[in-house]
Amino acid sequence: MVGSALIVGGDSQIGRCLASWHSAVGHRVIATTRRTETLAEHRQLLDLEAGHTEVIPFADVAYLCAGATSLQCCHKHPEVTRRVNVESTVQLAETLVRQGTFVVFPSTNLVFDGTIPFVRADAERRPTTVYGQQKAEAERRLLELGDRVSVVRISKVLSQSYPLFDAWRRQLKENQCVCAFSDMGIAPIPLEFVVELIGTIGTRGLCGIWQASAREQVSYYEIAQRLADRNGGSNKLVSGVSAIAYEPLNGVVPTHSTLDSRRLSAELGFSVPDSWSTIDRTLDCVIDRSRDE
Ligand SMILES: NC(=O)c1ccc[n+]([C@@H]2O[C@H](COP(=O)([O-])OP(=O)(O)OC[C@H]3O[C@@H](n4cnc5c(N)ncnc54)[C@H](OP(=O)(O)O)[C@@H]3O)[C@@H](O)[C@H]2O)c1
Questions:
Q1: What is the spatial distance between Cα 231 and Cα 163, in angstroms, rounded to a whole number?
Q2: Number of domains in the chain
Q3: Interval between CA 65 and ligand 1 midpoint (Å)
Q4: What does the pLDDT look like over 249-283, one tens digit per residue?
Q5: pTM value?
Q6: CA 109 to ligand 1: nearest atom
């Protein structure tokens, strides 16, 4: 029985929603933050760059949502981000597992190189980005801690806001060209789906590797065109470009971002919504926001 949850990275997109999810079912929630001005009894200071503190509150389940999540930042600062995403994260998990906490680690499809569609959970990790390498190493070391750990690999999470889409919308409004990757895409999952999934795995203590992505991959170019069409702009302003020159990719464009998500439906009865419904919901919010400007 779970009565308490610790959200490591309480200000993260996923962590914030997980906190609400647990609170809504009456669990005690403690979150960590590095924003000193927001500290409170249920918000404790934790900066993984400074190293993790041994004093971490007990909770039945903990979610490791804090980390350097930008591909660009990990590429530019590999050492500092490795300390955060690997060393401190693993040390923290060791403490938590020792305390008897069940630990959930959200991970990414970027632990793979994107050559295989619907890549299986037990496939060899082959990261090509620094971020992917760090997540892959953290995964491997966390799973060595035993059956009090689960790794949940997820593809791109979409919610009501996605700064890239907002930027495209502004450019289109000003009749500027939008360049979007035509050889790289996403198999997105909605934020609330991710939270329900991760929360269920955490509260039931379901160990091992879980994976979730939509079934269809959609390129950034297709999404930018859809935005132009739906927002009454001209999709002629949208050009497709290759992602090959995008520095953090290190010259390897991941062709596929889909993950074999069959365990979700087989064991939990979850099925990931289709890509376009997820993308359209985000675009609806992007377009709505433009009406307020
Ligand atoms: N969102 C996705 O599409 C996606 C996809 C696959 C996997 N994931 C994984 O899911 C987890 C959560 O992702 P997210 O998108 O919700 O994260 P996010 O919104 O990018 O937030 C990351 C959080 O980590 C905190 N943080 C950064 N450096 C820190 C440090 N040195 N010490 C302590 N906290 C630090 C940040 O604090 P501040 O708020 O103070 O800056 C921020 O709240 C991550 O592990 C990510 O790898 C996410």
A1: 16
A2: 1
A3: 5
A4: 999 999 999 999 999 999 999 999 999 999 999 99
A5: 0.97
A6: 6
